Structure formats: structure tokens, C-alpha cells
From TrEMBL:
Superkingdom of this protein's organism: Bacteria
UniProt source species: Solirubrum puertoriconensis
Keyword Oxidoreductase: yes
Pfam families tied to this protein: Homoserine_dh (PF00742), NAD_binding_3 (PF03447)
Protein name per its UniProtKB record: Homoserine dehydrogenase
Length: 419
């Protein structure tokens, strides 16, 4: 990239937020002056927090950056989704060019953000919101904008993946592995968003818009996490040559639209996701004509995520905006009752009955012991009883096999899987 000149002035950035991602971006731009970007103003929330730059570099009214006509692009990298939406929506109403890394905000408000861009002419890019340094959003939007996709799946959260790696490698229990992840900076003090799979759910919702043209409400998407996992579950997978990973799955429906869910999954050794370990993310795309594509990279951290913000800055300077080609022609059919084959451990008998666990023949399974049960459960029932599963300390992992719902006979069968 050529250095800026008098005829090619530096692009002036207004940076809102100076946490991990904000500092990562700032450091990248300082190291790469030839990129032609300059952080002119930085807005933060807490005036007393110690930061690695002189105090006079910071100000505390983010709205003032929105009204500074000399700033060419605004970058929003705060962790408050509601405040992020307020700021980004105001900027778009002014026709501004904006980059955000806030996946929860984008997933929750994408329909409104699209409407604001259409109405006022601004542009919003958010590559950094999904899988850190892996360029999956623009790839789906641009490269696969016209090609049907058989599936999109992946490990979208490095914190939970780190915990699973430590449990698998070191024999740690969940609490020990989580504490280590927090000490290493890979998990928050409150780990709920990561460990309960709310974070990868937001990312899956965003990808659904680009991969299948769907604008989904995150609350309608199943997310099951690993809060109730035990070493017994890790052993169960290992004895079968598998690993447990938290996998987001996007699968097209025959009549249009797609099914989207996030759950732990028993991943076989021949899967590209099998060797994605620690804080890394992995994305698998199965395209109709291009075949399988796989990307692996760091899904979080200042520099990896900052690199995604930099890529969006360059794209905005070059006039790029998402096309959403599949959104314009998307149809949503009545979804068939999809059933997932799952490994279910520590489910009370009443909860098993409510879930309607069945075997391959469609016979209802009742397990009288806390050992693992292998059977089929409808996606809708898993979603309906998600909170009950968490409260009962039940662990659920899908095997990757799915089927359309079968009529359930009245007879019972029993199938126990030893730990």
C-alpha cells in the first residue's frame, strides 16, 4: 500500500472504545503508518481508568465524535450492546461510514441497521463481529453471494473452546479449566455469554443473513452450552475417537430458509473442526459448486480482531458495502420438525419424558439411571426446554445426525449408554 500524499490524505478515524479491540486497532495503525489511517479522536466511558496513552488523548462524550464532520470513519468497539446500537444508529442516520465489532448489537438489530443504511445512505461493516481474524462475512457476502450453500458450521467462540481443550488435554474438570481460561484472559469474569453459547448464537444469526438471506431474532435460535459438562462426557467422546466442541450449525431447508442452532457436538476425527483447539475458531462452508472450504484462525484478541477492523476500514475507503444478494430473494418455508441425535446425560426422568427422546425406530426412550442416553430429540423441544436443561445440570451434545420428526408410537424402549 502506498504512503498517503497531499493528493491522498490520511483517513481520519473516530474511535469509540479503547478496550482490547480498540487498543489492538490503535497499535496496528501506529505500526502501519503507510496504511493511511489516523486515529484523530478517542472516546471512552470511564475517565479514571488507567490507559496506555496520555490522558489528553481521551474524551468522554462519544456523541461529539458523531457530529465531527472532519472524521471520515467511525469505529465502535465498546461492550455495551444497547449503547452501541444507539451510537451506530445515530451515525447511520447522519449517513456516516461506520465499523463495529459488537456481535450482540448487530445480531439483535440487523433489520433496523439495514433500513437505516437504505434510508440515509450510510454504510456499516462488521467483519470483526464474527470469528475475529477469519474473513468469513465478506467471503459469504461477496464470493458466495450467488452460490447455494449446503451448510455453514464452525467453532465461533474461543473461550469455550479453550475450556474444552484443557478438559481434553489435561483431564481438568470444568471449573478448573474455566478458571485457567479466565486467568489467561480467554474468558470473562462472568462467563455466561461464552459458556452458555449466547456469543456464538449472535455470530450464527449474523452469518444467516449473508449465507441464506435470513434476518433472525436471536431468541428464536437454540443455544446450548457447556456449563454442565463433566470429565465423563469428555471420556465418552474420546472412547469413540471424538472430541466435544461447541458448534454453530446453519443448514438449508428444502423449501427455502435454513435451520440455525448452536450446541455442543461430538466431532469425529475426520472433521476439519477436530483439531481446532484452545482459543482458535474454525469455519466450514460446504458450497454447491465450490465444495468444502475451511478457515482456522484466532477468534478473539486485540490484534486478530483489530486486523478485521482494519480490513473493514480499507474496504470502506474503497467504497465497499455488503450486497446481501441472498436477502433480496430469500423465502422462508414452514420448517419441518427437525430432530437431532443427541447424547443426553443427567436428565431427570420427567424432563426426558417432556423432551420425547426416541431411538432410531421412533420408540420412546426412558432411562432409569443418570448415565448417558443416545437418542433423537426435536429441535423445537430442545429450544422449549433449554432453561430446564440448564437448571437440571443436564449436558446435551448432538452427534451431527439429523432427521425429520417421526410419529412416536406408544411403546417404550430403553437404551443406556455407559459412561
Amino acid at each position: 500500500m502506498s504512503k498517503p500524499s497531499s493528493t491522498n490524505p490520511r483517513t481520519r478515524i473516530g474511535l469509540i472504545g479503547f478496550g482490547c479491540v480498540g487498543q489492538g486497532l490503535f497499535d496496528i495503525l501506529e505500526r502501519q503508518p503507510e496504511s493511511g489511517f489516523e486515529v484523530k479522536r478517542i472516546a471512552v466511558k470511564n475517565p479514571t481508568k488507567l490507559r496506555p496513552l496520555p490522558a489528553n488523548r481521551f474524551e468522554f462524550r462519544a456523541d461529539e465524535l458523531l457530529h465531527d464532520a472532519e472524521l471520515d470513519i467511525l469505529v465502535e468497539v465498546i461492550d455495551d450492546a444497547a449503547e452501541a446500537f444507539r451510537l451506530v444508529s445515530l451515525a447511520l442516520r447522519q449517513g456516516r461510514r461506520v465499523v463495529t465489532a459488537n456481535k450482540a448489537m448487530v445480531a439483535r438489530h440487523l433489520p433496523e441497521l439495514l433500513q437505516l443504511q437504505r434510508e440515509f445512505g450510510g454504510t456499516l461493516l462488521y467483519e470483526a463481529a464474527v470469528c475475529g481474524s477469519i474473513p468469513v462475512i465478506r467471503t459469504l457476502d461477496s464470493y458466495f453471494g450467488q452460490e447455494p450453500l449446503r451448510s455453514v458450521s464452525g467453532i465461533f467462540n474461543g473461550s469455550s473452546n479453550y475450556v474444552l481443550t484443557r478438559m481434553s488435554e489435561g483431564g481438568s474438570d470444568y471449573a478448573e479449566a474455566l478458571a485457567e481460561a479466565q486467568a489467561q484472559g480467554f474468558a470473562e469474569t462472568d462467563p455466561t455469554l461464552d459458556m452458555a453459547a449466547f456469543d456464538p448464537r449472535s455470530k450464527a444469526v449474523i452469518l444467516a443473513a449473508h449465507a441464506y438471506g435470513l434476518l433472525l431474532n436471536p431468541d428464536d435460535v437454540l443455544n446450548l452450552g457447556i456449563e454442565n459438562i463433566s470429565p465423563a462426557d469428555i471420556r465418552y467422546a474420546a472412547e469413540r475417537g471424538q472430541k466435544i466442541k461447541v458448534v454453530a450449525s446453519l443448514q438449508p431447508l428444502s423449501g427455502g430458509g435454513a435451520t440455525v442452532f448452536v450446541t455442543p457436538q461430538l466431532v469425529p476425527a475426520d472433521s476439519p473442526l477436530y483439531d481446532v483447539e484452545r482459543e482458535f475458531n474454525g469455519v466450514v462452508v460446504e458450497a454447491e459448486f465450490a465444495g468444502q472450504h475451511f478457515w482456522r484462525g484466532r477468534g478473539a484478541g486485540g490484534h486478530p480482531t483489530g486486523s478485521a477492523v482494519l480490513a473493514d476500514l480499507v474496504a470502506l475507503r474503497n467504497g465497499f458495502r455488503y450486497q446481501y444478494d441472498k436477502l433480496s430473494g430469500a423465502t422462508v418455508a414452514e420448517a419441518p420438525e427437525l430432530e437431532l441425535e443427541v447424547y443426553l446425560r443427567n436428565a431427570p426422568e420427567g424432563l426426558q419424558h417432556a423432551l420425547g427422546v426416541t431411538n432410531e425406530s421412533g420408540e420412546i426412550i426412558v432411562a432409569a439411571a443418570p448415565e448417558g442416553v443416545l437418542g433423537y430429540i426435536s429441535l423445537n423441544k430442545l429450544h422449549k426446554h433449554r432453561d430446564a436443561l440448564r437448571a437440571a445440570a443436564t449436558f446435551v451434545a448432538q452427534t451431527g445426525k439429523t432427521r425429520q420428526a417421526v410419529a412416536q408410537p406408544t411403546q417404550l424402549a430403553t437404551e443406556l449408554v455407559a459412561e
